[in-house]
Specification:
Strand order of the largest sheet: 1-2-3-6-7
Helix content: 25-40%
Number of helices: 3
Distance between the termini: 25 Å
Order of helices and strands: HEEEEEEEHH
Bound molecules: zinc ion
Shape: globular
Strand content: 25-35%
């Protein structure tokens, strides 16, 4: 059984902005370990805490490099540049993906599990994952960054899908 079910499109928790983490204690460390498990189990390359219903500024990711799973607490984007188109999906919007243009490169400041300042920077998949997860931590979803016409279509498709599933939301 999954530790935490992943919240999906229509769940209001995905549209809330989680609170900053004030103290990194054992509870936070356990939460992060659980989040990494949920991410790999899904499987996905990133997971924000509000995707499992926890309103905290925490995200985990694995950009499929040699560094393995990493965590960012209270992350903040400090630099974006370039442009890159990538077929992007989201664990909270299962069964969909869109070709999405975002900056190619991202630099992020955050805290690690010991409360130390840490910086993550990269382009392509890493740059994308950083932007996607920080989007979640601002109450955002990948459809928000689609051009207006594509976004309208995406919202319509998702609405129809929810009605078909009999989702009361
Ligand atoms: Zn996502």
């Amino acid at each position: 059984m999954a530790l935490y079910p992943i919240r999906t499109y229509g769940d209001p928790v995905l549209r809330m902005t989680p609170k900053s983490v004030v103290e990194i204690d054992d509870k936070i460390r356990t939460l992060v370990a659980d989040m990494i498990e949920v991410m790999y189990d899904a499987p996905g390359v990133g997971l924000a805490a509000n995707q499992i219903g926890v309103a905290k500024q925490i995200a985990v990711f694995d950009a499929q490099d040699e560094l393995g799973p990493r965590v960012m607490i209270n992350p903040e984007i400090v630099e974006l540049s370039g442009e890159w188109e990538y077929e992007e999906g989201c664990l909270s919007v299962p069964g969909h993906s869109w070709l999405i243009k975002r900056p190619a490169f991202a630099r992020v400041k955050a805290l690690d599990l010991d409360g130390n300042d840490v910086e993550y920077a990269g382009d392509q998949l890493l740059g994308r994952v950083l932007q996607h997860e920080i989007g979640h931590l601002n109450g955002g979803l990948l459809i928000d960054v689609l051009p207006k016409r594509d976004r309208k279509k995406a919202l319509k498709d998702l609405r129809e899908e929810m009605l078909e599933l009999g989702d009361p939301r």
